[in-house]
Predict the 3D structure of the following.
Amino acid sequence: MKSTADVVIIGGGVNGTSVAYNLAVRGCRRVVLFEKGSLASGSTGRCGAGVRMQWGTRTNCRLAKESIERFETLGEELGFDGDIEFKQGGYLMPAYHERQWEQFEQNVALQHTLGIPSRLATPDEAVEIVPHLNPEGLLGATFCPKDGHANPFKTVQAYAEAAARLGVDIRKFTEVTGITRANARLKAVLLSSGDEVETPVVVNTAGPYSQLVGHLAGVELPVHSERHQILVTEPVAPLQGPMVMSFAHGLYCQQTPHGSFVMGVGDPHEPKGFDTGHSWSFLEAVAAKVTQLMPILREVRVVRQWSGLYNMTQDAQPILGEVPEFPGFFQAIGFSGHGFMLAPITGVLLAEMILGQETSLDVSMLSLDRFARGELIREPSVV
Amino acid sequence: MPEQSQAKTDTIICRCEDITAEEVRDLIVRGYQTPDEIKRLSRCGMGQCQGRTCRLLLVQEIAAATGRGVRDIPVSTFRPPTKPVKLGLLAKAWAEREGDEGQ
């Protein structure tokens, strides 16, 4: 069966549903979103759920600040009848090495030029913010009270239900198997059902599978996916307001509003690929690190471990915009582990680009051709 | 023969997270009709026992509401640990394996 659309979005995670909503609310009609599984079943629903303004590049700082300011009123904006569980308990980032501290001083100076209310904290001040933090070897920390947490499942539900009310056709459990072109322009997407949808615009928001969507269109995208493991504990009484993120330990750890702790450790030896399995050594490694950093957590029980995929770029910053040699094929990919927190602004920017409007922020430096030009500024602050 | 639900509206389906049959049915009506979707939106099956009690009850609710067979409803992924384990115990195992204090 053949049908037509003005925009087809591939991928029903937080960025896909954010783009869908932002197109619809700007008056774009006939938007169709295809998701091969259920909504938020890829990277969004597996992520650590943290949101932070404390980044090390100007671009990531600006995107994150804009996004968090939107998170503050997102539930109301979307008319959501639930709760996206947005809390701003801050992020505390302890430093244990001189080089880390110097990087943090630079980061905070940069953040201040952009109006981000982060600050440097002495070891005593850091322990005041998180009393159960082990002060041993601590040189200092940075803290931003605007950073925090939101529930990824509820956020996607809020975006998707708002988009659907505005007329977006959201098709779960529907896989796109082909993207065709005619005269160097987009023609249609093909579905696993055999159906075909003619469209002048396709948006790739397929997260860790974005490069596979690129292949459907014959486009080689400079991203790869890698597994990151994560665990959750039983809920306990409120103990920790901020996320604690230590680059020395490669660890992040946050208590969610529900009371459970969510934590993960990055593994520099993780191979590229699509594995979303789990390993017992991860449980032991994260336990060893987190109980050294915050000994009180020794008594808290792990109830589940899982994993998800980061879609990485060389500079750990996303790719936003149209493929130059393939008009109509837009990318919002390569979020490198921070796609959830950047989704509110990403949806706005992509909708503006697609509708030919001036973008709210200049993100020309995030175009796909920066890799060919070699104009890369690497984000230093990723776990 | 189609599945029939035995639960009243206020019957607890997930006792770790206090999720009632009514909450589950509300999500099913809103179009969330797989165990994974309902789990992620309501926390049904996300607690201490990781769904060992509610998994089948949830599948039965979905089957009763949608007319699908229980066998056609995919259950959520099983993940370790099988029982809750203290972080301190896991850290000790790491230290013993590494032969030092761990890192």
